[in-house]
Amino acid sequence: MTDVDPTPNTTDEPPVDPLPVASVATLCEELAANVARVIVGHDDVVEHVVTAILGRGHVLLEDVPGVGKTMLARSIATSIDCSFRRVQFTPDLLPSDVTGVNVFDQRNREFEFQHGPVFGNIVLGDEINRAPPKTQTALLEAMEENQVTVDGETRDLPDPFTVIATQNAVEPNRTYDLPLAELDRFMKKLRLGYPDPEEEHEILARTVGHHPIESLEAVTDRETVVRARETVTGIRVEDPIRAYATRLAGYTRENAEVGASPRGTISLLRAAQARAVADGREYVIPDDVKVEAPVALGHRIRTVDRERDGRAVVENALERVPIE
Amino acid sequence: MRLDVDGTIGPTVFRLLAVGCVLILTASYVSVLLDVTRVVGGTRTLFALVGSMLVAATILARVIRPRTATVAALVAGVVGFAYYLETSGLGVGVVASGTGALLEDVLTLVTGMPLLRMIEAGVWTLAFAPAPIFLSWYLAVRGRYASSVVPGGAALLFLVLTGDAGTAVTLIGTLGAIGAIGFGELERRGGSIAQADLIAVLFALIVALSLSVTFVPAGPATPTTAGGASDGTLEGTIDSASERSGISGQVDLSPEVRFTVESDRPSYWRTGIYDRFTGDEWVRTGTERPLEDGDELAGPPGPTHQHRQVVTAETELGVMPAAPEPVSVEGDVAEHTEVSRHGHVHPTTTLIEGDTYAVESAVVTPQPDELREAGTDYPDEIRDHYLQRPEETSSEFEDRTAEITADAETPYEKAVAIERHLRSSKEYSLDVERPQGNVAEEFLLEMDEGYCVYFATAMTQMLRAEDVPTRYVTGYTSGEQVDDDEYVVRGLDAHAWVEVYFPETGWVAFEPTPSSERDSVHEEHLEEAQDEDDLTDETDDEPDEESDADEADDEPDDATDEEGDDAADDSVPDVDDEPPTTDSEADPRDDPSPPGGPQGPIDTSTDDGDDDRELSPPVVITRELLTITAVLFVGLVAGVHRAGAIASARRTVGLFWHGRRRDPTSDAERAYRRLEALLAREYRPRRDDESAREYLSALETRPGDGVASDSEVRTVLERYERAAYGGGVDREDADEAIEIVDRLTRERLPVVGRSAATGR
Hints:
Strand order of the largest sheet of chain B: 8-11-7-2-16-15
Shape of chain B: elongated
CATH architecture of the largest domain in chain A: 3-Layer(aba) Sandwich
CATH topology of the largest domain in chain A: Rossmann fold
Number of domains of chain B: 3
Helix content of chain A: 40-55%
CATH topology of the largest domain in chain B: C8orf32 fold
Strand content of chain B: 5-15%
CATH superfamily of the largest domain in chain A: P-loop containing nucleotide triphosphate hydrolases
Structural class of chain A: alpha/beta
Largest sheet of chain B: 6 strands, antiparallel
Radius of gyration of chain A: 20 Å
CATH architecture of the largest domain in chain B: Roll
Oligomer: heterodimer
CATH class of the largest domain in chain A: Alpha Beta
Largest interface: A-B, 18 and 13 residues
Structural class of chain B: alpha+beta
Number of helices of chain B: 28
């Protein structure tokens, strides 16, 4: 699986035929069910990750170590039959370790590009906040542009391209916090949190012996995901919904030091589109926006006292901002 | 009534409105003061004062600072009151020596003594006016409306406490005050007309409150209901309040026994003296002082003879009948007696049945010759207080009076001429309509009949017009003589007459009311009352028994027969006729004892007349009532607008009736809105931040078989979401949603619902 050649996202590719909404909804269900074989609980987080992939977004998972961040990313990647790459961010990781380098081939006597781990359909950036900013930037640029430039040559990243980064919430002295501008490139920031006692019991029961990830099989393929993404793009977002999203963003701008950016609003609506599809609808309703807003906007907000979570601001916005 | 609700109104409009409201407030208390000056004089001065204060305030508003203005107003007030003290003979020095007395004065006023009862009411009014007018107008011109309401409101409040400001005036003043504050505030903050509706609501609220709560103490401004609805009896009118004597329209006579007098001779039993005439009622000025034990009153200056009476109250009495002029009171009641400035005694508490007191009176014994030669050398005190007439007395009244007294030279002759004129030219009737305006004038010039109140009022005013000090007195006629020295006085003996002052002699009573006519009218009433008593007591009695009973009631036939003759004589007085009280021999002309037996068992025609009279008071729509109704209406509309009642009514109708169908999309949305309204009535309304779906889910989790658990509701929701966010629905889907909501609402209709539900 790791050696599958990533298909470059070339412009001459024929236009993708969108899947019917109902099949995408089924697809989401299947994906979630498959992931649930490995991940106990956290159904909402799983759903968020799935919709983020369908909404062309990237996900940042933040939590203490050991709650299953990496496992979640792996399960998702495994459930989709596509290339999965993993980058373990460390303080000494170099940008070229992420993007790849030109290597001189003695036989052909020419430079050959050695693809870095970023060239995957799903890229897991583990403990992204352990690498210095320079290296982080290499990944984040790829996320924004869907392309990397090495030695003056620009190379497209495969389609779909989704980064699932994890970030350690403890040990702040030994990490490089992501700047707000870079956080903004993630569609959602999610938290897993500790499982409750029954869930933990279940986890123990599953993982003693063979880990279920080892027997996990793909339930869909790259093609389907691309077509599902096309479906999401075509989801109707009517004027009242756009106005509502604008009002929400406006509220955060008025009630925090730095509010949600327009990029944030775009991400929010994309996530809402994906959410609508997952629910089997061809149109976004306010509820989709309300479900996605905390995770899609929260990390883009800096509160005045810096201590408070941006999510709280969004929760307030949801309670205060009228829907119509 | 459709206003551009969102349109903002220029601050200029609000400014004008606020200033107008301050003017209304000012006008309200100035109008109260005007009522006073119209009676006691000084209206022109008051107008000049008000005008100059307004001008001064307007000019000074640009020049001086508020603190200076306040000081100026205070100075104006102090100077005014100093002048008042000077005039009322106390002197400014009294302020230094007796601030307490001054405070007491104010306190008396505030605790409900009407301005008109003040001896120097006119001067007081002029002293009172400048300060609040100046200060409030100064502040209004400077745009400080809220502060400007303070002095104006305080002035009005003071007049409310004295009882001079009536409900209507207080209401208008209060509305002015609220308007000034409200519009001033709107001007300051740049409000819109939509916010002005709050002021309208406040207006209406105040009006409604004032109609339901009587905060204004019952003062003179509370009219003694024309038509006599309050009491309706003659004595009720005469003694409508302890310090005032009203004049009403048609009155009744009460045959109830009020008191008995043991006296060796008959007399008019005086109960009250009034000196100030407002045009529609009499007011006694000044306060009473307690009668110290064994205190002897001065009595008349001229020769008198002593007359001792023992009066026993037979019902509750708020007055102390006594022959003029009482000089001392003995008995238990004595310590509860006070004496008015005019020299009559009054009880401080209501006398109850059985209370007895003995009065020693000094009765003047003037001879006509003496009176003729009495001259006009009146003491200042008399001249100052007993010549008052309302300001707007017409010249016609004076001309007519001059005509009547053309041949008379001395005050006595004038009095006799007027007395004779009134007796001969006017008929006696209890059934009159109270005239508008100056009663004395109307009676002399327009009316053909009236009763004692009208006669006495007219005579008093006519004599005053001729510069003869005169006062209006009330009381009872001598009553029914039941024994050699015992007189029974009934309610129907209530009477009003006139006292004229003669130097060296004192106050001498005159009787302008035609006695014989009065007798016959009163007699009828007594008979009627007796007949009615008989009827109620013994309904099954034979007619002849009734007449027996009537005869039994008419005991004092003998006495009345001879007195009746006297009365006949007196009713045609000549110039030499002696004034009533000088005739010591007999003055029973007003003895109302029936001279003869009843003419028949029941006078049905009179009864019919009574019925008609009861029906007669028509519903009068006054301008006041119209204004109040208008204010209430506007307030109601504004309140409705504020509370969104129209919208809510529309919602209610819309809940049960979908109305005309439009395009499917809006119909589906409409169907959901109806569903939402339905659920809002049943559970709770949707919060603003709640999506349709969240709302229904929240209701689903509620206990009980809520409508929200219905899958049909889900259908409506889905159609709605598709219509609102999904680019529309088709006709069929919309109709389905409407149908579902129609059914749900029908099931919730109280009566139809049951049958619809079962028929489904």
